[in-house]
Amino acid sequence: MSPQPLEEDEVEYFHPNDFCFLCQRLLYDPIVTPCGHMLCKPCMVDNALGSLPSPVWVVAVHEDPTNTLPVDRLLRRLSARCPVCCNQFKDGVRTCVEKCADLRAKYPAAYAARADAQSRTEAGSGGDSEVERITMCVGNENWEIQPPPGSSKTEKIHEWSFFAKFSRHDIIEGVTFAVLERGTTTVRQPPYQIYGRDRSTVIVMASVTLKDGYIWESEHAVDSLDGGYKRMVLVEWLMAWDDFGGKGCMG
Ligand SMILES: [Zn+2]
Ligand SMILES: [Zn+2]
What we know:
Blueprint: H1 8-11, E1 30-32, E2 38-40, H2 41-51, E3 56-57, H3 71-76, E4 80-81, E5 88-89, E6 94-95, H4 97-106, H5 108-126, E7 135-145, E8 157-166, E9 172-179, E10 183-187, E11 192-198, E12 202-210, E13 232-239, E14 245-250
Helix pairs in contact: 4-5
Bound molecules: zinc ion (ZN) (2 copies).
């Protein structure tokens, strides 16, 4: 029997440490989890996005959301379950630049083939992908104001604003803000923001509804008030006067 020509991946022997548990191929652009497991970066990203629909991180109040996925920032702060050992970690994952260089040197042909396949995958999922990404930042600002004449001097009064910002507006149907004991306000055009004046802590609930035809790819998604399947996500926000800041949430 004459030997069959080898497939590209079989030309070189991969050490088990150079293998990705998830995709069962040569590690590509490796990252390491706090529990010490090494995976391809794209495998970790796919897994994290699949299991963690709304990674949340704190952003500056005036930071505008961008539509580019901040993959490296997400990975550095990632809180997720390790896909290999199922340990929960919250300290992010590290990229392994040296390991990457090592893999390139050890398996030049196979690594080049991996890179090529990866860039084709990314190109293919760019334009006509069914999953689109949107970054949402929610937060509040508040400032103390002079109490009206005659009121108790010890009581502090704050004016506040609560906002939701998005990396794109074309798929947002509207944002409904509910402030306890004050009812709801729906804003259908940017800026999605409400203002108030209060003496004590305020709880704001914001629900973000997508336009008809879109659903949130998130386990926190609920049906919209008009019955649209998974078209709404809810954010609950405690506005305390010593807390000045914003937080971002990506879905
Ligand atoms: Zn992999
Ligand atoms: Zn692990």
